[in-house]
Design goal:
The protein has 255 residues and is α/β, with parallel strands linked by helices. It has two domains: 3-96 and 213-253, Rossmann fold; 104-172. It has eight helices and ten strands. The protein has helices at 23-29, 73-81, 113-123, 128-142, 157-168, 187-203, 214-217, 238-253; strands at 3-14, 35-39, 44-58, 62-66, 88-94, 97-100, 175-179, 206-210, 223-228, 231-237. It has a six-stranded mixed sheet, with helices on both faces. The protein has a four-stranded antiparallel sheet with strand order 2-3-1-5, covered by helices on one side. Strand 9 and strand 10 (231-237) form a beta hairpin. Helix 3 crosses helix 5 (157-168) and helix 4 crosses helix 5. The radius of gyration is 20 Å and the shape is globular. The N and C termini lie far apart (48 Å).
Amino acid sequence: MAHLKLKNVTLDYPLYGVRGNDLRQTLVKTLVGGMIKLDNEKARVSIKALDDVSLDIHEGDQILLVGHNGAGKSTLLKLLAGVYKPVSGTFDREGRVLSIFDIFYGMVYEASGRDNILIRAALMGIPLAQARAKMDEIIDFSGIEKYIDMPIYSYSAGMLVRLGFSITTAFDADIILIDEVINAGDASFVVKAQNRLKALSERAAITVVASHSIDLGAEFASKALWLEHGRIKSYAPIEDVIAQMKQEEGNQSHE
């Protein structure tokens, strides 16, 4: 059974090397979406990336994360993946997770594409026999058959993305976490990638997708979670959140 539950979760990022009296200058130079927190006792500045977030996600939920840059979308995804730990509050997770936001993690550039399939799969917790069984499918989907036995440092950026994406999405999981829809170079592969993500999410018990495009993300989701400054502004069926966002945009345009 797949399940994600957050209760009053807060996550801060310390801004190392920034003192309280440097804050104004720092903010002028850097666009920050999170809330700024100043600890006067320790003379430390931090960004509250997630602020008192409570969320209960069950099997069958397909959720789109929306919000401006810095709203907390990627931070929330990484917390759900176990990359980050909350500063306060609790987080419980059941089910095998597939994270599609670091498709190059663990890849060895001196090794061949074929060897990297096995390396990356091992880091994902996939048994060697299962990775070998998927080898031909991964190579075929990537479209780089002629180069698969060459070291990947010789690959173009597009080839690396296609290989990393093909490996990462070759294996099913209970919970799928996607940070933006992958832009994998040529148009034909982008269509293949989007179709694979859609099929993968339909087989998963839970899917959570972060996207700047609510229309594109709607292909993967039935609900939307609207984040603003690390807090939940709205969590509802996706059509309701779209209406709320359009209404707010309309109100701001008339101010």
